[in-house]
Write a structure and sequence with these properties.
This protein is α/β, with parallel strands linked by helices. It has one domain: Rossmann fold. 36% of the residues lie in helices and 16% in strands. It contains 8 helices and 6 strands, in the order H-E-H-H-E-H-H-E-E-E-H-E-H-H. The strands form 2 sheets. Strands 1-6-5-2 form a 4-stranded parallel sheet. Strand 5, helix 6 and strand 6 form a beta-alpha-beta unit. Helix 2 crosses helix 3 and helix 3 crosses helix 5. The termini are far apart.
Length: 245
Amino acid sequence: MNGLSLDNASFLRSPRSGAGVCVDCFNFTRGFSRCFACAHTERQLAAMVPISYSIGHEYLHHTLASYKRLPSDRAATAISQVGAIIDRFLECHEACVAAAAGTDRFELVTTVPSSDAGRDETHPLRRVVGELVRSTRDRHQRLLRRTDVPVEPRRFDVRRYGAVLPLDGASVLLIDDTWTTGASAQSAAAALRAAGARTVAAVVVGRHLNRDWYENDRHLDKLSCRFDWTTCAVCADWRRLAEVA
């Protein structure tokens, strides 16, 4: 991936479960088990695992915006970086995601269609997952399309997407760049399940957070400063529970 090194990925922040953390999406809460968005969204995903927190106006946030919004000749570095992050994470932790979703493996991999209909046909995430990421390129298919049904932005709606083919009991790994409310990913999972998918789980590069909301800044400061590729949000929780037991 153009020789990009992520050994010292200081711009990534490891999501971790615990008190005051949403059990579905790893958002910080005011002591509740689920954040407001997850508590009010129909859950369709068997598991959702964010690679990192994406903090508003910080490096990862800008990378995830620029890789899809800049002209292609200026977005190459950001595209390569997003691909390298997904590639390394799945190499280390796809098995963790599968176990959390209750499946042995994912037969198919797809992406969440863009929220911008005009950008969907050329969205770089499909190229990242279908060409750049080694573990997904042979399993990637474009399984979803946007429908013409008008739906409210950032709200779960089973009519938002439609599957392009029957899935006949397949387990599907859904990849997206950013999770804010989760409405798009949960809507995509609903369409895949309606088409016959047995299990749908999601990996997202960045779980979006704003430092200035409630006590987010304090929660973020409690996280380890150094991102650890050997531990993901899922297996870190398993290790913590094993230590308690």
